[in-house]
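ligand=flavin-adenine dinucleotide
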Amino acid sequence: MDESNDIIVVGGGPVGAALALGLDKQGCKVTLLEARAQAGAEDDARTLALSHGSRLILERLGVWPLSPPPTAIMEINVSQRSGFGRVELTAAEAALPALGYVVEYGALQRALTAALAHSGVQVESGCAALAVSGDTQQARVAVEQAGVRRELQATLVAIADGGAGLELSQVRTRDYAQSALVCDVASEQPHRNRAFERFTDEGPLALLPNAQGWALVWTARPQRAAQLAALDEAAFCAQLRQAFGNSLGAFTLRGRRRVFPLHLKVAARPVAPRCVQIGNAAQTLHPVAGQGFNLGLRDAFELARLIAVRGAADAGGNELLNTFFNQRRFDRTATILFTDSLIRLFSKDIPFLMPARGLGLAALAVIPAARKFVARRMIFGARG
Ligand SMILES: Cc1cc2nc3c(=O)[nH]c(=O)nc-3n(C[C@H](O)[C@H](O)[C@H](O)COP(=O)(O)OP(=O)(O)OC[C@H]3O[C@@H](n4cnc5c(N)ncnc54)[C@H](O)[C@@H]3O)c2cc1C
């Protein structure tokens, strides 16, 4: 492995891989370190709702179209169980070919890995970053690969480890005391490219159109999520129908159920010079509005764009990183607040808000400008 680089990216998940590809397109010398033996997880059960904005970025990186083809979301239907108010966001109203696209994490990762293989990025798999430090001259990464420890240098280290442990700054954490149960289901009624977000007493329940069926993200208290995951198929599907309602008919389970604990994690700017965190390493969100990866991809895109404009020679310089943090602050803060507020607003802990929530949804339903605002925020983020 070459010891000296323009930029080292730690973490070959979808955000780190996208950054490495974006930098490679600018002619930077990039090394991507991925702790797993194979860059990225093929077996991750998550299904991601990509915004139209993310599609545009992936197109620029040459990673679109994906295979199997993502399922387009033409309509998003938001409602609350045991309360009035319902809102529909449509692609036609947003004047877009689709509001978003549903893709499996593994399929996205495969496409990124294939693009990396045809790029100039040096990918080091099975290579875990142990520690990162920096000074005014250079950044350093201590790594371990096949039992051998060594140190690499670069002008900038971008950490995209998903918040796995390379914490370089203070991290603000809030445990949502919720878990997300994730699996594929089918229903009697076809999805017709509609996505549903239903706020229940237990937490939000999302059904995303995925191929011929649905990707389910069902949020509940950890104990309840574990119980749901352990139910037999018939009991599980009956519970799902009870929580979602009857409009799609009976459900059938497809594949395994997985449970993810949920918390909000926001990292402050790293103290070490020449280091930056992006994606989940910078902010880990509740999946309620499907914003985590979309926000992380915007982090990656904006960092690569800034380095293209300013040049890679001093990519880790204070001035460039100051600009990056200032440019990203509004989008990051607005997206974190938007996601976190949805959870607080629809929490059963504040039941007296139920009528207000219904009114809010009803207002959105009748005010096209407000609906467009929400749709644009979900599709493009807050650009400032
Ligand atoms: C249930 C659920 C549903 C979600 N749905 C959506 C959605 O619909 N839309 C959306 O936009 N987002 C969604 N998200 C969020 C999304 O999954 C994340 O935001 C996204 O995966 C973050 O990507 P990342 O590359 O930053 O981190 P990760 O995907 O966690 O990847 C990090 C990578 O870094 C590697 N790594 C870790 N430590 C090291 C180390 N020390 N050295 C080297 N490599 C290391 C790991 O092996 C991994 O490959 C959802 C999340 C959950 C839990």
